[in-house]
Every structure is written in structure tokens, then in C-alpha cells.
Amino acid sequence: MAHKTPLVFLITLLLVTQGFTQKMEPLRQKIENIIQQKDVVVGVAINGTEANDTLTINGQRHFPMQSVFKFPIALAILSEVDKGNFALDQNIEIKKSDLLPGLWSPIQKKYPEGTTLTLAEIIEYTVALSDNVGCDVLLKLLGEPVDVENYFSKLGFKDFEVKINEETMQNNWDKQFLNWTTPKEANRILDTFYENKEGLLSQKSYDFIWNVMKGTKTGKKRLKGQLPEKTVVAHKTGWSGKHKKTGITAAVNNIGIVFLPNGNYFTISVFVTASSESFEVNEKIIADIAKVAWDYFIHK
Fold first, then answer.
1. Residue 101 binned pLDDT confidence (cut-offs 50, 70, 90)
2. Is the pTM of the predicted complex or chain greater than 0.90?
3. The domain 38-299 belongs to what CATH superfamily?
């Protein structure tokens, strides 16, 4: 009789797993309906606060992060702040030679001759405004881009690589693919650092970065695009632009945490790549997916 227990357990596990899958199936179908007929590749990961609220589409596929990687960079620098190697109120000089002509940088626009900012200000520019100058200044402080990857690798994140900075990434189309992650891993990074269960960040650093993420100014038509006006979303965007010859877009991304009126939240990462669609269509895909996810969690 003893041999029957494992069998009963496996059958029960299978039934429960099928139940979890079926529970999310209507949401999966809605997302697939959004994606179909579009000349794109889309990766999606969605996680609610309950274990059975998990869905992925192309969840293990490698997607170029573009500026999404600025969030992990900020987390890596904050870990150094917590070690005492830097301070949020520390002044950092940004020389004129640090400015990157032709690249998106509110810092460069405001301070064309260079300036001195606190580390906190540089992180805010980098994450909330997706500043490329600020990003590369942070990477220099850390040492090399791969130091960000190493930090996350030590924490057990394997589907995540950072090899190059913004200057290199924006000047060589093919190299952007060296900075990649998967939708599933992006969600895991968001969840891990938001839950902060093992005290990965000090309370000060934790409060700081999540307030910055909630204040992100880019990508208003992506995750937030169709959600109720006052919905709080802590998020980070990324965008590659179009290839000059092929017209293909390699990345229109948005990862974040969406907060519900009842105090719960869900984590969502959407990556759009290999797209022949317009920028507006790519953004709408992300907005549509976020909206059906919102509807699912609101009515569950």
C-alpha cells in the first residue's frame, strides 16, 4: 500500500497545477488575442501576490533590455551605498567629457558644460527620466557594466546579463543584445527587491528607489496607458528605436509593479522585439496587456 502514496500525491499535484493553469487561461487568451496579427515577438510575465496567479508567454526567451537595465543598475549602486562605499548625498562631478552628444540626456540638456549632482539626483535622472549620461556615470562608479551582472548573479539571478554601457549600446545596434534578460527573470528581480525579505536594501535605500520608480516619467502610454488615471505604477521603460535600414524595432519594453485599489499589487514585464509595427502600435500592445491584467486582478 505504501507505494500508492507518491502516486496519489502526483495525481493531486497534477490536478492542482492544471487548476492553476486553467485559472489564468482566460487572461492568457486575451493576451494572445492582443498579440496575434501583429508582426512582433512579445514576452510577458505576470505575477500576482498569490502563488497561482502566474502567467508567462515567451517567459524564458532572451530580450534586449535597453534602458530597462537602469533599474538593476540603480539597485546595484544602492547596495554599495548600504555598504558605506557611497552616500546618496555624495556629490558626483559630471564633466563635459562625460556628456554623450546625440543621446537622450536631460542632464546634458540642462548642464551642457557639465555639473555636480548628488548621487541621489543622478539615480533619479537615470531611472525616472532614463538619462543615458547618468546611467554611464553610475556604471563608472561601480567599475564595469559586468559588475552589475555579477551582483545579480551572486544573488541567484542567472537569466540576466549586462556587458556594455549606454554609449556602446546606442552606437552599435548589434551590441544591444548583449544586455538581456527574460520576462520571467525581470519579474523575479522586481518581486525580490520589492518584497525585500532578506533585507537586500536598507530601509532608506528601499524607500528611495521605489519612490523613484513610482515617479518614472517615461512610457506614459505603456503599462500606465489604459489604467485608471490615479493608478500607482512603479516601473522602468526601454526603447531601441528603429534600425535605419530594416525599420525593425528591437525593443519597446516596460517592467513594473501595478498597485490595486485594495492594497494588493501585481508584477508585470512586457518586452516587444523584432517588431515591424509602428512605435505607437508597440506601446499599445503593452498598454492592452496591462489593461487585461488589471481587469483580471480587479475582478478575481
1. confident
2. yes
3. DD-peptidase/beta-lactamase superfamily (3.40.710.10)
